[in-house]
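>> Question from a student workshop board

For tomorrow's exercise we were told to take the sequence and the ligand below, predict the bound structure, and bring the output to class. My setup keeps failing. Could a helper post the expected result so I can at least see what it should look like? The ligand is adenosine-5'-diphosphate.
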Amino acid sequence: MRVLSVASECFPLVKTGGLADVVGALPAALAACDVEVRTLIPAYPAVLARAAGAEAVHGFEDLFGGPARVLAIREAGLDLLLLDAPHLYARPGGPYADPWSRDWPDNPQRFAALCWAAAEIGRGALPDWRPDAVHAHDWQAGLLPAYLHYGEGPRPGTVFTVHNLAFHGWAPAALLSELRLPPHAFDIEGVEFFGGIGALKAGLRLADRITTVSPTYAREIATPEEGQGLDGLLRTRAGALTGILNGIDETAWNPGADPHLAAPFDAGHPAAREANRAALRVRMGLEARPERLLLGVITRLTGQKGMDLLLQALPRLLGLGMDLAVLGAGEGGLEAGFRAAAEAHPGRIAAHIGYDESLAHLIQGGSDALLVPSRFEPCGLTQLCALRYGALPVVARVGGLADTVIDANEAALATGVATGLQFAPTTVPALEAALDRLAALWADRGAWARTQANALRAPVGWVRSAERYAALYREVAAGR
Ligand code: ADP
Ligand code: GLC
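>> Workshop helper replied:
Here is what the output should look like for this input. Compare the format with yours to find the bug.
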């Protein structure tokens, strides 16, 4: 089984969030299920910098305004296809925005080009590799099922995964022909969405199968409250929609051999975590007070993640004798809020504003609990890393957070299966109540140690989910 995976980011080459982690980790897990994956991403400058020796395997004279090539290279254990289109991708800044965080105005064309190239590969453009199925991720790859649906001749099966329903990839209707979509595609049964072109909607409407990244999120997005205007469509496609839980890359996230930690540890040797607790306090300028509970946060600072609620709950957190280490970047108001909190409470609250892969690992290995108070969370990966690193996840009971953490209620404690704490709804009082419960658990060292031992042994890898994707690819390929 050959699968072309198509996305706008892929760890370790280019990453802004969990999408990159998933796209980067799934191929190795699928190899064990006899699925051969090649991954197509745009050749941004950071990607090209790692592509010395790449071989050109296909060319386009004019791909949405300029010449382009597909380069092939094996890098970081991945079989990569890089879409080298300098007129679209040779720019400073991140994958989606300029260095001042302003989205590129031609993002519709930039990612339509990715989808067009993917569709060509799907139909056999490469001399010796033709996929049985394509797997498109999020709105940036949403037009891929559309190009295959409206194009001529045999096509591979299509799977579309929504990692976040909040990003629609909307473009004005006037771009229809520029985006190489036929006039009849502009229809409620096609790419039309609120009077324009919806790339996410196109993927949801036209892919053979749709998945999202947890069973609970799959149910949530079919409701008007969480459906972002797409719930009606998702209900009509209920038979094609499944939730498949994300895993984490257990090699990249392995506390027994993690170069970013001060000391290795694992489920058999949890006491060795102590050196990391101390190292984290030093690294972040927190007081050397090992008896205090240290709460960690690693996140994009956006409304989705509930960080405004945490800012409001800080007095309670400090009153309970806890300290806080925050690593995050995003909205200016939230960045300023955490900077100000750290200045007001030196030694007790530390905030590192920015993106820092290495510090993320040390926070997982050195904090006692990791807070994820999301308003919605398709899956979430940081709570999975936290489990593996023995930082008890304290999570809002939404989406994949609800599916991956076992709340330390009386029944779970008595049965010996608790791995963290859940709270609902995502409000300040509920968050404060969760902090109260966390303090009580911390005070009961036996219960804490048992919960941590469960967390350290919780299954967070890809094995089960990779099998489910493999089964889905076989289904859509057989349907062609
Ligand atoms: P999302 O994709 O919605 O941002 P996830 O929990 O699925 O949320 O994935 C986030 C990923 O990005 C994790 O691998 C996490 O460790 C990483 N991450 C988020 N913010 C930062 C940061 N400021 N520095 C380093 N890593 C970060
Ligand atoms: C999105 C979601 C996150 C999920 C990630 C990977 O960024 O916000 O919950 O874990 O995609 O699927």
